[in-house]
């Protein structure tokens, strides 16, 4: 990714791209990294799964992010290659034995997550009696204030968590607790509920933990969503943590993904075809950068370009299809676009940094993984970045 442009308009004027392109603003990324590093009362561990683009990870490292939530050997290798001294948290609760061996022996990972006894025994069989290793137990509670509930797949309930935490202590490992309130969490109180439960687990188990990891879930403010700002989440988490834990002996950690990188990246697409019934076909879609449209009608901010200049006009809702031959390749909502939008126009979607290129496929031979640098990123309204 060596091409650099002043802004999206210059990209179109100079390159007239035929394929879709992600536009990365390092200035916007550094600004959001600073917001987390200075605002969150603990350690920031970037959730690499949200966007593993090497150039983005390099920029985060340069901005001062020194810890990373990794879910696979590929993500571990990526971060180690960029920042050898990074603190890696292998927080995928289920891992193959060879993955544990490779992470521990080849990449010197010393923090592993688990949520059941069989995974604990698997970890123990590989790690042995290394007391420098931290095993972080993931737990869950019956609450859901998020767009995507992640507790159906992972997390021990409170009673099981008590028993498993005691096993970690008895085995001589460093102990930690972690949870995830769900992606796009809408209520600050969800974190408080989890922290209160974490304190109960610690008290009832009699086990002192060295780390409390509150996971990710910090939301992006897509169009039409009424959400607390990040600082409200930080304040609530910090207050609840201080009420129930001693920061001198327990480290607070979070794992932001989309909220850290979303605003720094936009996706520039092009209209392949326009029908009279307000239907457009784009050169990117569900199997590319818009996978989340399958599950939720996320409304991204948009702007349209024509002949290298921003184009506006009376807006109307449009049905949007992606480029593949599959009928699933359709937006879950109808974006508002200028009524005269036409073949050859470019449509730029903002807030595309998280779970865009990272979840894209090559179905039908279409790809969504091309990046360029732009100095000036997408011009968000102030309320979008609150």
Can I get a quick summary?
Pathway: Amine and polyamine biosynthesis; putrescine biosynthesis via L-ornithine pathway; putrescine from L-ornithine: step 1/1. Its EC number is 4.1.1.17. The protein is 28% helix and 22% strand.
List keywords for this structure.
Ala_racemase/Decarboxylase_C, 386 residues, 10 helices, 22% strand, 21 strands, alpha/beta, nine-stranded mixed β-sheet, eight-stranded parallel β-sheet, single chain, lyase
Walk me through the structure.
The chain has helices at 8-15, 26-39, 54-62, 73-82, 97-105, 117-127, 158-170, 189-205, 230-244, 258-261, and strands at 4-5, 21-24, 43-47, 67-70, 87-90, 111-114, 134-138, 146-148, 174-178, 183-185, 211-213, 251-254, 265-275, 279-282, 302-306, 309-311, 315-317, 319-321, 336-338, 346-349, 371-374. It is α/β, with parallel strands linked by helices and 386 residues long. The strands form four sheets. Strands 1, 2, 13, 14, 15, 16, 18, 20 and 21 form a nine-stranded mixed β-sheet that branches. An eight-stranded parallel β-sheet has the order 5-4-3-12-11-9-7-6, covered by helices on one side. Strands 8-10 form a two-stranded antiparallel sheet. Strand 4 (67-70), helix 4 (73-82) and strand 5 form a beta-alpha-beta unit. It is elongated, with a radius of gyration of 22 Å.
């Amino acid at each position: 990714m060596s091409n650099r442009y002043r802004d999206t308009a210059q990209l179109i004027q100079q390159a007239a791209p035929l394929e879709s392109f992600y536009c990365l603003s390092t200035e916007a990324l550094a600004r959001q990294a600073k917001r987390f590093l200075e605002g969150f009362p603990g350690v920031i561990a970037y959730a690499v799964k949200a966007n593993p683009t090497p150039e983005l990870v390099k920029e985060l490292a340069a901005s001062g992010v020194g810890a990373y939530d990794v879910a696979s050997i590929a993500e571990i290798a990526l971060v180690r290659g960029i920042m050898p001294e990074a603190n890696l948290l292998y927080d995928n609760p289920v891992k193959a034995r060879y993955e544990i061996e490779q992470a521990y022996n080849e990449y010197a990972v010393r923090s592993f997550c688990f949520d059941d006894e069989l995974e604990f025994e698997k970890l123990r069989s590989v790690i042995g009696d290394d007391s420098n290793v931290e095993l972080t137990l993931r737990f869950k509670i019956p609450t859901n204030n998020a767009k995507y509930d992640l507790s159906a797949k992972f997390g021990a309930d409170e009673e099981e968590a008590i028993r498993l935490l005691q096993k970690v202590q008895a085995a001589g490992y460093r102990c930690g607790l972690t949870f995830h309130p769900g992606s796009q969490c809408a209520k600050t109180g969800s974190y408080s509920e989890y922290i209160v439960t974490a304190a109960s687990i610690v008290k009832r188990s009699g086990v002192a933990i060295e780390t409390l990891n509150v996971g990710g879930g910090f939301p992006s403010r897509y169009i039409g969503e009424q959400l607390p700002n990040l600082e409200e989440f930080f304040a609530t988490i910090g207050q609840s943590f201080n009420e129930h834990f001693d920061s001198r002996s327990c480290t607070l950690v979070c794992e932001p993904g989309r909220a850290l990188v979303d605003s720094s990246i936009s996706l520039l697409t092009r209209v392949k075809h326009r029908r009279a019934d307000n239907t457009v076909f784009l050169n990117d879609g569900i199997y590319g950068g818009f996978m989340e449209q399958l599950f939720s009608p996320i409304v991204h901010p948009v702007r349209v370009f024509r002949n290298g200049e921003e184009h506006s006009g009376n807006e109307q809702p449009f049905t949007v299809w992606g480029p593949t031959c599959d009928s699933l390749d359709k937006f879950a909502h109808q974006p508002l676009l200028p009524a005269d939008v036409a073949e050859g126009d470019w449509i730029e979607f903002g807030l595309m940094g998280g779970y865009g290129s990272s979840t894209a496929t090559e179905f039908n031979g279409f790809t969504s993984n091309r990046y360029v640098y732009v100095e000036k990123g997408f011009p968000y309204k102030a309320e979008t970045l609150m």
